Known about the structure:
Layout: H1 15-21, H2 23-43, H3 68-73, H4 75-85
Amino acid sequence: MQQANNNNGNSGFSLSAIAIRQHIGTLMLTVAVIVIGVFFLTTIQVDLLPSITYPRVSVRLEAPGISPEVSDSGAKFRAIDSDCRALPKC
């Protein structure tokens, strides 16, 4: 039985055709990739509990002569407080 030429004049590069024709080479390449992957997977060092440092923002205002109760209710300090709330939370 003779195969028909289905390329229609296209003699381009076909990875699947090469993989089918060279099935032993494809198998060896696949096994090599798996062995290298297992080797590197066993030698990689992964910390199960990494140390995480969260970012901190501190705001210090100096307003001489103002008590903490007055500063909490002051309009000037409410603007700073609303600006600080816009910071992303971690």
